[in-house]
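Supplementary Note 2. Why include the ligand at all?

Several targets in our set were suspected to adopt different conformations when bound, so apo predictions alone were not considered sufficient. For every target with a known small-molecule partner we therefore ran a joint prediction. The input for uridine-diphosphate-N-acetylglucosamine is given below.
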Amino acid sequence: MKLYIVAGARPNFMKIAPLFHTHTTGFDDLDLCLVHTGQHYDYQMSKVFFDDFDIPEPNYFLNVGSGTHAEQTARIMVEFEKVCLQEKPDLVVVVGDVNSTLACSITAKKLKLQVAHIEAGLRSNDMTMPEEINRIITDSISDLLFVTEKSGIENLKKEGLKESQIHFVGNIMIDSLYYSLNKLDNSSSEQGIVSPYAVVTLHRPSNVDNKQVLSEIIEALIEISRNIHVVFPVHPRSEKKLESFGLMSLINANNITLKKPMSYLEFLTLWKHAKLVLTDSGGLQEETTVLGIPCLTIRQNTERPVTLDEGTNILAGTSKDNILYHFDNIMKGNVESGKIPKLWDGKTALRILNIISGRNI
Ligand code: UD1
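The joint prediction is reproduced in token form.
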């Protein structure tokens, strides 16, 4: 059985790697091929993750690059269609919620190919997020839906997807987290930053593309940096916006250390020793829950409610006052320890490959 696995942007690479690692443990009936769309192309946004996760060279690199949503999605569709027509995969596997996920699932389905979506069913119920549109459309046309948390099962059923298509397998990204923690055990793992410190990541268009919203978040970070050193690896989108809104000088004048985007291992080494994490990333809400690090999510909603209900995640909103209120609580020690959600155990890729290959589990 020929599987074509699609990855395009930074948050995809940690979700495909475990499939390749697990494939070597007795799945000779599955032939795994990799397509990299090139949605992310900078070394620090892409190639470095192949090294960290020991992912094989892609069979195809589509080199689509950046553009508007329509341009980027369309370019991926045109190029991926050529691959599908030539290779005729038995199953196309897409992960997450980026434009590459949407583009490749539509392309495959229109060619009447089977599609599997890993990380299906997550919903923020916020249609202003491009990722929410990508998730809903991808799920609606996928044949196999692999779900990370129980809310995903309910969301998919509500949208009319059949129970037989839905498989609760756990969180594949956590397979990569455990893989990387093992790797770090065998290396010296210090970032040379004196504890305690807070780690920040920001890149959502709703947070960084609007001057007023971004200014308010930066004001909160500056206030926080008066209490604790803040380390902020900056996404290319955010770097451009901070510069164009004239916020860079403000940051540089305070106890905030800006860093270039980091490799997964460098970044893990940083945040796993942090006092807290402030982020608008999806994946980091889940990863901090697994390692029990307090996480303030700088958004109005999350598509990952299990991290709020069971983990260490707190929805802090985007206003300065709310962010500071929750920050103060954490500094006073008012934090719940949380627990690791069901099936986030490092064996999700194994469950997925077992289901795809029709083995009994
Ligand atoms: C994309 C995903 C988002 C994910 C994020 C993680 C979509 C709709 N969004 O957002 O869900 O959380 O990746 O990073 O797919 N750029 C570079 N170098 C690169 C890639 C991008 O400089 O390697 C710059 C370009 O100017 C580009 C901008 O960053 O226009 C945004 O990139 P894009 O892929 O459009 O979306 P992200 O904001 O990265």
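Residues 9-11, 39-42, 45, 66, 97-99, 130-131, 203, 235-237 surround uridine-diphosphate-N-acetylglucosamine (CB under 6 Å). The domain at 197-331 is CATH 3.40.50.2000 (Rossmann fold). Comparable summaries for the other entries are listed in the accompanying table.
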